[in-house]
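User: Some background: our group keeps a shared notebook of sequences we're curious about, and every so often someone picks one and asks for a predicted structure to add to the entry. Today it's my turn. The entry only has the sequence so far, pasted here. Could you supply the structure so I can complete it?
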Amino acid sequence: MDASCQLGLIKQRIAAGGGLRLTVVFDNAGRSAADLSAELTERERAEGRLKTAAAAYRSWLLGRLAAKDALAALWQMTPGETEVL
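Assistant: Of course. Here's the predicted structure to add to the notebook entry:
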């Protein structure tokens, strides 16, 4: 597990069969959604603001961070350099 994530989240990358990779993000309830959204682009933040329920937003946010991490690993970039719309 990668516990050194700057967002205070624990990320685990799992190699699956057929060349697939899975990134799992475990929530750190001690981090605010505002802190967690620091890795998002402005367009991603705008999409997130459409979520009206706090739980729905947090779930969406964690999924978005996992997707960004997986793409960043695939493209050998940082999650901050990727955008998922």
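Suggested note for the entry: The chain is about 40% helix and 15% strand. The longest strand covers residues 10-15.
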